[in-house]
Amino acid sequence: AFGAGWEPSTFYEYYYSECSEVSAGHEPGQAAGCVFPNPFYPGNTFFCETAEPGAPLHLQVFDWSGRAVADRQIAAGKPVAPDWPSGLYVVRLSQKNGVLFTGAVYFAGD
User: Fold this and answer.
1) How far apart are CA 74 and CA 57, in angstroms?
2) Distance CA 17, CA 89 (A)
3) How far apart are CA 104 and CA 1, in angstroms?
4) Does the pTM exceed 0.85?
5) Nearest CA among 14, 13, 44, 38 for reference residue 106
6) Residue 7 phi/psi, 5° resolution?
7) What are the domain boundaries of the chain?
8) Residue 4 banded pLDDT, cuts 50, 70, 90
9) More confident of the two residues 33 and 11
10) What is the Cα–Cα distance from 68 to 27, expressed in whole angstroms?
């Protein structure tokens, strides 16, 4: 169902068994990445090493059906108050010169 290399392990977990070598790092002036708490509780903050310190971040949050539940500008290091139900979401943080973080994050309620 998922193509070559994917193996089901549970109802909601899949592993990709065909990987090539990946190197970590970034070019000067490029986005570097984020440290994002998981689970994420209301009022948590996150750290992003960016190519543009102080510039706003573009936050996009999608539920598992692919529906966008958030699409807004935020300030790095400031508390984020999710206004969507608790659950597992795909989060993307970016700036104009690159994506800083994309991943699954569990948002916990109060």
Assistant:
1) 5
2) 24
3) 21
4) no
5) 38
6) -130, 125
7) 26-107
8) low
9) 33
10) 30
- 17 vs 77 pLDDT, higher one: 77
Mean pLDDT of the region 86-107 = 86
Q: How is residue 53 written in tokens?
A: 């310190």
Query: What sign does the dihedral 101-103-45-59 (CA atoms) show?
Result: positive
Q: Which of 22, 23, 28 is nearest to 97 (CA)?
A: 28
Q: Which two structure tokens, joined as six digits, stand for 105? A: 């994050």
Backbone angles phi, psi at 43, to 5 degrees: 90, -10
> Does the structure show a pLDDT above 80 at 107?
yes
Evaluate whether 79 touches 43 at the Cβ level (below 8 Å).
Answer: yes
pLDDT of 69: 92
How far is residue 66's CA from residue 54's CA, in Å, rounded to a whole number? 30
Q: Alpha-carbon dihedral of residues 27, 31, 36, 40, nearest 10 degrees?
A: -160
CATH code of the region 26-107: 2.60.40.3080
